[in-house]
Specification:
Beta-ketoacyl-[acyl-carrier-protein] synthase III; 23% strand; four-stranded mixed beta sheet; alpha/beta; 353 residues; transferase; Peroxisomal Thiolase, Chain A, domain 1; acyltransferase; 2 domains; lipid metabolism; 10 helices; single chain
Length: 353
C-alpha cells in the first residue's frame, strides 16, 4: 500500500515590500483648537489623537500614492509589477481612476491599473483583489496602495470630524509564492451592509445628487459621519470579521503576534482588542500621531512596523478594516524577511519623472 504523499504548497500572494508617505505638514491639536472652539484635552479624550498630517494645497492623492508606491517597490527589490491597485475615497478626479496615473508616474505604463472604493476598508479589499490576480495567474507581481486626502472632503469647521482625519498613503508589493513561506497572505473575510450607506458619506457629488451651486448646501458637499452609530458598528464588524478569519485558519487570538486594525480612533481600537481578548500591546497603533488616514491607515501601520522592527519573520499578522458602505474586511498573513526600510525623502524628490 502506497503511503500518502505530502500536500504540495499552493500558489499564493506573498508580501515582499512595504512603504509609506505622509505629507510634511504635521498639525497638532493646539493648532486646531482655536478655529474649532475646542482644546487638546477634549480631542485626546474622545479620539486619542495628538496630531495628524495635512497635504499641501498643490498635493493630490496620486502624489502621496506615487511616493509610497515608489518606496514599496524599492523595498521589494524590483520596480516592475503587472498591476497597480489604488484604494481611495479621494481620487484625483471623479473620472478617470487614479491608479493608471500612479502606474504611469512610476514608469509602469501598460500594466493593469484600477481603483477600489471601499472607504476605510479599501486596503483590505484591494489586497484581496491583488491576491486574486496572482492566484488566478493574471500577473506575478502587484502593487497595492491605500491613499487618502480626507482634508479635501472634511469640512475644516466641523469639530467632530476635522480633528479625527489626516492625509497619507501606504503601499505593499505582492509577488507569486507559495502558501507556506513567510509573507504569504492567508484567509480573507469581506462583507458589507448597504442599508447603512448614509452613516458615513459625502452626500453630494455623485449621480444621485450632483453638485448644483444653486441648490447644494455646504454640508452636503462634505464628509459626514454619525459617530455613535459608527462606533457600535465598527466594534461589532471588526471583531466579527477578525474572528471569521481566525476560524477559517483554525487559530485562536492568542496565536496572533500583531493585530493591525484600521486606525479609526484609539477608543475603537481598545474596545475591539478587548472584545477579541487581545492584549493591547499586541495592537499596532499610530492613530495618535497620524489620525485616521482612511485606506492608508493599515499599510502605513505595516510600514511603521517594518521601520520599528516590531514584527519578526514568520509572525502571524491579522489585518482588520471597517469603513463606509458599510464595509469591513480582514486578512491573515505571516511577516516576511524584508530589506531595511527606505526612508522618506523630501516632497520635491518625489516629483514625476
Amino acid at each position: 500500500m502506497l503511503g500518502t504523499s505530502p500536500q504540495r504548497p499552493s500558489r499564493a500572494a506573498v508580501l515582499c515590500g512595504v512603504g509609506g508617505q505622509l505629507p510634511w505638514l504635521k498639525v497638532g491639536n493646539d493648532e486646531l483648537a482655536d478655529q474649532l472652539d475646542t482644546d487638546d484635552a477634549w480631542i485626546r479624550t474622545r479620539t486619542g489623537i495628538r496630531a495628524r498630517h495635512f497635504a499641501a494645497p498643490d498635493e493630490a492623492t496620486s502624489d502621496l500614492a506615487v511616493a509610497a508606491g515608489r518606496r514599496a517597490l524599492a523595498n521589494s527589490g524590483s520596480a516592475t509589477v503587472g498591476a497597480v491597485i489604488v484604494a481611495t475615497t479621494t481620487p484625483d478626479r471623479t473620472c478617470p481612476a487614479t491608479a493608471p496615473l500612479v502606474a504611469a508616474r512610476l514608469g509602469l505604463t501598460g500594466v493593469a491599473a484600477f481603483d477600489v472604493g471601499a472607504v476605510c476598508s479599501g486596503f483590505v479589499y484591494a489586497l484581496a483583489a491583488g491576491a486574486g490576480l496572482i492566484t488566478s495567474r493574471v500577473t506575478d507581481r502587484v502593487l497595492v496602495v491605500g491613499a487618502d486626502l480626507y482634508t479635501r472632503i472634511v469640512d475644516p469647521g466641523d469639530r467632530q470630524n476635522a480633528v479625527v482625519f489626516g492625509d497619507g498613503a501606504g503601499a505593499v508589493v505582492l509577488r507569486t509564492g507559495h502558501d507556506t513561506e513567510p509573507g504569504a497572505l492567508g484567509f480573507f473575510d469581506l462583507g458589507s451592509d448597504g442599508v447603512h450607506e448614509d452613516m458615513i458619506t459625502v452626500p453630494a457629488g455623485g449621480s444621485r445628487l450632483p453638485v448644483d451651486p444653486a441648490r447644494t448646501s455646504h454640508a452636503e458637499k462634505h464628509f459626514t459621519m454619525r459617530g455613535k452609530e459608527v462606533y457600535r458598528h465598527a466594534v461589532r464588524r471588526m471583531a466579527g470579521s477578525a474572528r471569521a478569519v481566525l476560524e477559517q485558519a483554525g487559530l485562536s487570538i492568542g496565536e496572533i503576534d500583531l493585530f493591525v486594525p484600521h486606525q479609526a480612533n484609539l477608543r475603537i481600537l481598545r474596545t475591539v482588542a478587548t472584545d477579541l481578548g487581545l492584549p493591547f500591546e499586541r495592537c499596532a497603533t499610530h492613530v495618535q500621531e497620524m489620525g485616521n488616514t482612511g485606506a492608508a491607515s493599515i499599510p502605513l501601520a505595516l510600514a511603521r512596523s517594518h521601520v520599528d522592527g516590531a514584527s519578526g519573520v514568520g509572525d502571524r499578522i491579522l489585518l482588520t478594516g471597517f469603513g463606509g458602505g458599510l464595509t469591513w474586511g480582514s486578512c491573515l498573513l505571516t511577516w516576511p524577511s524584508l530589506p531595511p526600510a527606505v526612508e522618506p525623502s523630501r516632497p520635491e524628490e518625489e516629483a514625476a519623472p
